Structures are given as structure tokens and as C-alpha cells.
Amino acid sequence: MDIKQLIYLCNLERERHFGRAAEASFVSQPTLSMRLKNLERELGLSLINRSNNFDGFTAEGERVLAWAREIVSVYQGLKLEVESLKHGVNGTLRIGVVPQCGVSLPLLLKMVSDRYPQLDYRVAVLSADQLLEALTSHTVDVGIGFFELATLRELHFQAESLTDNGVELVYHPAHFPQLEEIDRLRIEDIATLPLCLAEPTRYFRRYLDASFREAGITQRVILESTSIFQLLQGVQVGLGCLIAPVGHLLPAMNPDLHYRPLAIAPMARHAAVVIAEPGRATPLSQHFFDEVRRILSES
Questions:
Q1: How many Cα neighbours within 13 Å face the side chain of 299?
Q2: What CATH architecture is 89-164+270-298?
Q3: Is 31 helix (H, G, I), strand (E, B) or coil?
Q4: Which backbone phi and psi does 236 adopt, to 5 degrees?
Q5: Prediction pTM value
């Protein structure tokens, strides 16, 4: 058994396809298949369900895969540690982020980059549940999203909470001038407004839906999308209004839009920046986390 075989196994889990896993591993498909079959022979276990195509892992394969993730994560952490010792903090940090989590991620990354200019970022947009799974399986180094703090403690993650600054309504005053006359917006004040909202699978959208139900209001969602860019365009042309966590958007990017606080009950989950426990976090993620903690403490 060698580390490459375990990397191939992890790549197969991520890609769910032999050809794509081979491409991700920078080998031919026959080479990848042969190395994985050699691993099975050495372990004396069938790890992969094979038909004409990849058909998932066996129960034994899932157990081995869990160990493979751990070993590959430690191996990659070792490589990054060596690189940081030789060249300082540099490399690519894998970040999983939940949309509308109360912080402008590019702004945060810019502040970290001022300290670590050689650090690069690869960002994946995930649901809250997908993000926790990605952190657990080490497919992302950093998670930024909504979490139950008790769960994070049980799993021994390091977490830095993001300040909950509430929720705001984003609208174009030329299309919704009536909103300018209301001193303090309540959920009842926007009951009849057309809304541009994220899809229902997102945690923030589920939180909004629950808030409307508790108020006895059926909201009108005129535009629903996974893309914040599409939602903002809908607001810009007057198609509807957007509800977002305060701090998620950069007002300077949309100077024509107005941002008004909306009185609404706080979320049950907490927004946080999360990495693995000390000693198991990669060097890059630990440097990133420590710098984010410093930035948040000074803001």
C-alpha cells in the first residue's frame, strides 16, 4: 500500500467516475484501475462496486475510505508544512462557503491576503449540511457558514463565530418608493412585496420561510436562484426585493440600491469560520484561521 493508491481512492470518491478520477490523479484510467485493484488484493477486500461504470463503494470500501481520507489529509498537511518552512505561507486553501452567511468572503480574503500574499483560494459553494460533511471528510480546509455550535464542539472543530448583525432588505428606491416612508421595516411591511430569494435548500432561505410562516404570511417569491448575482440583477431592474444578512453584500458594488434593516427573529444556527482541531488542521488553514480571528477581534 502506498499514498498514491489512497489518493486515487479519494479522487474516485470525489469524482464518482473512473475517467475523471484518473484525470484528477494525472494518470491513465487503466493505471488508476490497476493500482486500485492491487490495493484490493493487498487488503484482501473488495472496495469498489464495479459494473460497466463506477457503482459506489462496498461497505468495506467505505470503512477503508474513511481511513484513506485521514491519511491523505495528514500527508497533504505534511507537504504544506514543509513548503511553509521553506517558502513561508503559500499554496492553495480549499474553502467551503454557505451563501449569505453574513460576511463578504472576498473582503475577508483580501484582508488575509494583505498578511499572506502568496496564499491562493479555491472556493466551493455548498449547503450547510454539505459543508459540515466536507469538513469532516477533509475535502475542504476551511468552512464558512451556519453551524450548530454544540455539533462543532462534539466534533472538536475550531470555530470563530461571526457577528450576527441582523437582516436587511435590499431594493431599488425607484421601483419601491413606498419603502422609503417606513421608519423601521417589519416582516409585515414586506408581506406583499415580490421577493428575489435563494432556493429553498439553502439554510438562510429556510430560515426566512420559517419566519414568514410564524408571522402567518405567505411570501411572493418572484425570482428564485442559486446565484446571488442573478438575484441582485433582479433587484437592480425592479423585479423584486432581496433579503440578505447584513454584511453579506458590498453596497459600493450596487450604489443605486438601498439597504434597510428588517426586524426579524435571529437564526437558530450561528455563522462561523471553522477548521479542524489543533494538530489536525493543515498549516495553511491554521494560519488563515488565526488571521481571521485577529481581523474579527479588531473589527
A1: 14
A2: 3-Layer(aba) Sandwich (3.40)
A3: helix
A4: -60, -40
A5: 0.73
